[in-house]
């Protein structure tokens, strides 16, 4: 029990909760709300619904990005700064995850924002949500890999060293 790191526990839980809400929300938008609204509504009410949803969803997306950045940084500092782990192969995989995460953050922000520079991207919302979800799938695969390569080489805080008794006894 004394080996439990409360900060890591909370940070990991918030990280995963933010992933569930933001990526789950994007999947709901792409596969249920967008096609459903398009099928059921005329153009004018459809556009009004899109704008109302965009406004509300923008708050969740921005809070989710902030939470992922803060909790991700805490996770990294607690789990993955050498000498706790071997930098190779963890850090290159983490670099790929971070690049993909910035891609997700950029697409998500552009879709809920109002900048004229991204108006074309918003007109192709379905395609860009597909790209976002594909990147999110890659990130989730890479995160699972990170956890495994860290586990294989680490003496990290969540994997305590064996005690003397454990080492000596057969
Ligand atoms: C769309 C963005 C992101 C997604 C979908 C995502 C997803 C995940 C998932 C599913 C885990 C596994 C949790 C676990 O097994 O404990 C995880 C862990 C982690 N994430 Fe993220 N994450 C994202 C963004 C970030 C960012 C921006 C950072 C860094 C600033 C970050 C840093 C970490 C770290 C260090 C871990 C622990 C990996 C390990 O077990 O060694 N994540 N993330």
Radius of gyration (CA) equals 20 Å
Which class best fits the helix and strand makeup? mainly alpha
List low-pLDDT spans. Answer: 159-170
The kinds of small molecule bound in this structure are: protoporphyrin IX containing FE
Beta strand %: under 5%
Shape: elongated
Helical fraction: over 70%
The chain-level mean pLDDT equals 91
Domains (count): 1
Largest sheet: none
Distance between the termini: 25 Å
Task: Write down the secondary-structure element order.
Answer: HHHHHH
Count the beta strands: 0
Question: What is the number of helices?
Answer: 6
Report on the structure:
- This protein has 170 residues and is mainly α.
- It has one domain (6-156).
- Helices cover 81% and strands 0% of the residues.
- The protein contains 6 helices and no strands.
- Helix 1 (6-40) runs antiparallel to helix 2, helix 2 packs antiparallel against helix 3 (87-112) and helix 3 packs antiparallel against helix 5.
- The chain is elongated and about 60 Å long.
- It binds protoporphyrin IX containing FE.
- The site of protoporphyrin IX containing FE (HEM) has 23 residues, from helix 1, helix 2, helix 3 and helix 5.
